[in-house]
Specification:
Two copies of one chain form a homodimer. By secondary structure, chain A is of the alpha+beta class. Chain A has helices spanning 35-44, 125-134, 136-162, 165-182, 196-203, 207-219, 235-243; strands spanning 46-47, 56-58, 66-72, 75-80, 86-92, 97-98, 111-114, 119-124, 189-191, 223-226, 229-232. In chain A, the strands form three sheets. The first copy, chain A, has a four-stranded antiparallel β-sheet. Chain A binds a DNA duplex through residues 164-165, 195-197, 205-212, 214-215, 227, 249.
Chain lengths: 256, 256
DNA sequence: CGACTTTTTGATCCGATTCAATACGCGTGG
DNA sequence: CCACGCGTATTGAATCGGATCAAAAAGTCG
C-alpha cells in the first residue's frame, strides 16, 4: 500500500504479512509509528495460526511472555476466582490488545478464549519493551493503550456500580455499536459472538434477566433480535436508556 | 540515608527532598531503579505543597501534564457522568500513583480529591516518558504500575459484578488492611478517611446499606467500629465472607 | 434424528433500595 | 462553655428490581 524501499527482508515470507496489510492497522499498536520504524516493529511481531472457537490465547496462571493483538474474530477475557466463579472482564474485537494485565506480575491472571475463529499477532513483550526504549512513539503508544484499558475498566465500574439492568444492556449494545463502527463494520447490525450467559456474566446479571431485556427491548421497538444477530433500531432511545436514567444514585453533586 | 557521592545539586534545597528519604520509597515508582539513575529521576520530580482536605489534585477535563505520587494522606478518584452522577473508582494511599488514566486522551477524565491533608509529588509526564526511554528499568516500572492498575480495576469488576453487599464491604476492609500493612501501618486498626456515602458509592451500594453492614459486622464480632475508626477483629471470618460466599453466580466452570 | 446446550418465559422470593425519621458529630458564634 | 444548625450516620418499615426456581422452546452438533 505505502512505499517501503529499504527492505529486502520484511516481505520474504508469506506468513509474515505486514501490519500495513492488516485491516486493523489504524487501530492497533502501530498507530503513530514512523514508517521507517515499522520494519523494526514488524520484525518482532509473530503471525500465528488462527484460533478455533473455544481455544485459548492464554490461560490464567500462564507465564507472561507476549502481548496479543486481535486481527479478526473476537475473544472473551475472564478470570476464575478461588471459589470457582467466573468473571468476564471484557470482550476483544479486532485491533485490540490482550495480556496487558499480566505485565505487573509476569503471570496472566485471566483467560483469553476465542469466541469464534480468531486470528491474531503475538508480540514478545521483552522485545517490545526493548524496542519501545528506542522508539519514543512506540513507548508512547504502549502507555496510551494501557491507559485506555484503565479508562475502559473505569467506565465499566461505573456501569456495574450504579446502573440498572436495562441501562447496562443498552450501554453494552451501544459500546459494541461504536466499536464495530470504528472497525469499519455496521454500527447498527452485528452478531454478538458471546452467549447470553456471557453477556449476563459481564454485565453482572443472570442469563434470564438478559433474555428478558432483549425481549423487552424488541417489544419496545428499540432493537430487532434473532439469536446472536442484533439490529439496533432506535439508537436515540437506547442512548437515553444507557445514559440518563437514574440521574441521582449517590450522585451527591455537592461533594464534587 | 544511603550514600550518594557525586551530587551537589540534589540536596541543595530543603524542598527537594530525595525519594530515598520518603517513607514510600519501597512502593513508589523508583522501585528497581539503579541508584545512579535515581538522581535523574529525582531531578524531574517536583515536590508540591500539601493539599488540604477537599482540595483537588486535578479535575476531570484538565489537560494532562503529570502523574502524581501520593506521599501521605489519601485521595479519592472519581468521575462525574453526563447525568451528573458521581462514581468513585478508587482511593489512593501513600505510594500510589494518580493520573494514569489520562495518558490515553491527554485529558484527565476523573477528579482526584484529598480526603485529608495530603502530600504528594508531581512527575511531568513528558519528561518521565523521555527518561523512561533511556532507563529500561523505569520504563518497565511504569508499565508495571499501569498493569497493576488494570488488574486492580479488574478485581473491582469482579466485586461489583458478582458479590453481595456483605462480600463487597468485607473485601474492601481486607483490601485496606493489606494496603495499610504494605505501608507499614497496622493492618487491623485504621481510620477510613472517606465518608460512608463514599464507601457506598465505591462499592455500588447506598449509604444506608453500608451503615447497616458496619453495624451487623460489629454485632457479629467481626469488627469494631467507631465512626471512621475501624478495628478488624476476626480477619478469618472476614476473609471467608469476602471470598467464598456465593460460589456459583454465573460461574459456569465448564466454559472455562 | 436424538441428546445436549442455550434461550426464553413464567411464578415466586429476597436482598438491597427507598422513604422516613431520629441520632450523632462538629464547627460556629453568642 | 453551651446552644444552635447542618451535614453525616444510623435505624426502621415498606417496596421493588433482579435473582432464583422451574419448565418449556429453540438451537446445535455428532
Amino acid at each position: 500500500m505505502s512505499n517501503r524501499e529499504h527492505d529486502k527482508i520484511v516481505n520474504l515470507s508469506k506468513l509474515k504479512a505486514a501490519c500495513e496489510d492488516c485491516g486493523m492497522y489504524g487501530l492497533c499498536l502501530p498507530i503513530g509509528i514512523h514508517e521507517k520504524d515499522m520494519a523494526r516493529l514488524e520484525k518482532i511481531i509473530k503471525r500465528k495460526q488462527p484460533l478455533k472457537k473455544g481455544e485459548h490465547l492464554f490461560n490464567q496462571g500462564d507465564a507472561f511472555h507476549s502481548l496479543y493483538a486481535i486481527k479478526s474474530g473476537s475473544v472473551k477475557i475472564y478470570s476464575i476466582a478461588d471459589d470457582g466463579s467466573e468473571q468476564i472482564t471484557g470482550f476483544l474485537l479486532p485491533g485490540e490488545l490482550a495480556g496487558m494485565d499480566a505485565i505487573n506480575t509476569g503471570q496472566h491472571n485471566s483467560y483469553a478464549k476465542a469466541l469464534e475463529t480468531t486470528s491474531f499477532c503475538e508480540m514478545p513483550f521483552a522485545q517490545l519493551e526493548e524496542l519501545a526504549g528506542q522508539l519514543p512513539s512506540l513507548q508512547h503508544q504502549l502507555l496510551r493503550l494501557m491507559s485506555k484499558e484503565i479508562v475502559k475498566e473505569g467506565e465499566m465500574l461505573m456501569q456495574l456500580g450504579k446502573k440498572t439492568a436495562e441501562e447496562r444492556l443498552a450501554s453494552m449494545l451501544l459500546s459494541f455499536s461504536t466499536r464495530f463502527k470504528e472497525r469499519g463494520f455496521s454500527p447498527t447490525e452485528f452478531n454478538l459472538s458471546m452467549s447470553r450467559n456471557d453477556i449476563g456474566n459481564y454485565l453482572g446479571l443472570v442469563v434470564e434477566t438478559v433474555s428478558r431485556l432483549f425481549t423487552r427491548f424488541q417489544e419496545q421497538g428499540l432493537i430487532y433480535v434473532k439469536g446472536k444477530y442484533i439490529r439496533l433500531i432506535d439508537m436515540q432511545a437506547l442512548g437515553k436508556l444507557a445514559g440518563l436514567n437514574t440521574a441521582d444514585n449517590n450522585s451527591n453533586p455537592k461533594t464534587a
